[in-house]
Design brief:
Elements: H1 3-20, H2 25-28, H3 41-46, E1 51-56, H4 64-73, E2 76-79, H5 85-88, H6 98-109, E3 113-120, H7 127-130, H8 135-152, E4 159-164, H9 179-184, H10 188-199, E5 204-209, H11 218-233, E6 239-242, E7 245-246, H12 255-263, E8 268-276, H13 281-292, E9 297-302, H14 328-336
Parallel strand pairs: 1-2, 1-9, 2-3, 3-4, 4-5, 5-6, 6-8, 7-8, 8-9
Bound molecules: ligand 9MR.
Pfam family, one: Glyco_hydro_10
EC number: 3.2.1.8
GO molecular function: endo-1,4-beta-xylanase activity
């Protein structure tokens, strides 16, 4: 069910309860604006207090089709590659924030919420990090990298993907064998989150991964156990990102259950990198609905704007075609959120 369709019932119940209690409905019912049917993704998501965002590539910001879609439709951005370790600290202690700054400036100047992606990840990691074998050295390198990123973008980042893709694929439910895991052991994720919290206490700190959408998957359960453990011990974690790179069938039927079970641990959840092979309208609607059905699912990010911008462009998985025209999946997403497609806008 969509949140908007729930509201009248909730409102009605409040009115009845208030009248029964002898009060007046006017004092008890929150004065909400009537649901406006917006005609862009970001504006419609905002109607339920959510954002709708996209991955952005700095080198495409000069493409006017790209940037006009970006600024018309989306109110959140994630740097597709520009804040990754390889770009930010290609050699030890030498920091390059130029590309990341271009994404941050785009977000700031257009009022778009910014997700930092990502502080600690085994991929797009420069070779000099991968070859560190001493735990004290690697710990201080990791903590310094986190602190430098956090300080650079303090006040501009809403949420950070502090650790990305740290769990193994397959049936083990255990950790992925990365340099961080191999050299620092299980505690490195906790260390990373504590360092990030100290460096930027205002940012929301997220764990982000793929193939954790199916509640029955061992990987999902492994991440769930970690988040439950963190919450029980006061390790600072605020959110979990579900990348949601789906095949043509869209999300697994348990996706909503997964989102709501994580949310029940006391974290926000987001869909962070959504794309679906062939972009079927039903598959996209199911992914969006899973989020709308969970109060603490407060945002959806697609992983690129046009099919030609996608890392899996051969599968045409996004909401706009190569010319920047809306695909049927776009209208499906917008109407699933309760919006109305604009007439005459391609
Ligand atoms: O979309 C990104 C692509 O341009 C890069 O070449 C690739 C390198 O690994 O990373 C892609 O983004 C990934 C994201 O950072 C983390 N989750 C998986 C995404 C798709 O591979």
């Amino acid at each position: 069910m969509h949140p908007h369709t729930r509201q009248p019932a909730l409102l009605g119940a409040l009115v009845v309860a208030t009248l029964l209690a002898g009060g007046t409905a006017a004092t008890a019912v929150p004065q909400e604006a009537p649901a406006v049917k917006a005609s862009t993704l970001g504006a419609q998501a905002a109607q339920s207090g959510r954002y709708f965002g996209t991955a952005v590539a700095a080198n495409k910001l000069g493409d006017s089709t790209y940037s006009s879609l970006l600024n018309r439709e989306f109110n959140q951005v994630t740097a597709e590659n520009e804040m990754k370790w390889q770009t930010v600290e290609p050699s030890r202690g030498s920091f390059n924030f130029g590309p990341g700054d271009r994404i941050a400036n785009q977000a700031t100047s257009h009022g778009q919420r910014l997700r930092g992606h990502t502080m600690v990840w085994h991929s797009q990691l420069p070779g000099w990090v991968g070859s560190i074998g001493d735990a004290n050295t690697l710990r201080s390198v990791m903590n310094n990298h986190i602190a430098q990123l956090a300080n650079r973008y303090k006040g501009r980042i809403h949420s950070w993907d502090v650790v990305n893709e740290a769990f193994a694929d397959g049936g083990s439910g255990g950790r992925r064998a990365t340099v961080f895991q191999n050299v620092l052991g299980d505690g490195y994720i906790e260390t990373a989150f504590r360092t990030a919290r100290t460096a930027d206490p205002a940012a929301k700190l997220c764990y982000n991964d793929y193939s954790i959408e199916d509640w029955n998957a061992a990987k999902t359960q492994g991440v769930y156990r970690m988040v439950r453990d963190f919450k029980s011990r006061g390790v600072p974690i605020d959110c979990v990102g579900f990348q949601a790179h789906f095949g043509a069938g869209g999300p697994p039927s348990t996706f909503r259950t997964t989102l709501s079970n994580f949310a029940a641990l006391g974290v926000d959840v987001q869909i962070t990198e959504l794309d679906i092979a062939q972009a079927g309208t039903g598959a996209y609607a199911n992914a969006v609905r899973a989020c709308l059905d969970v109060a603490r699912c407060n945002g959806i990010t697609v992983w690129g704007i046009r099919d030609s911008d996608s890392w899996r462009s051969g599968e045409n998985p996004l909401l706009f075609d190569r010319n920047g025209a809306k695909k049927p999946a776009y209208n499906s997403v917008l109407t699933t959120m309760g919006g109305t497609p604009a007439l005459g806008v391609r």
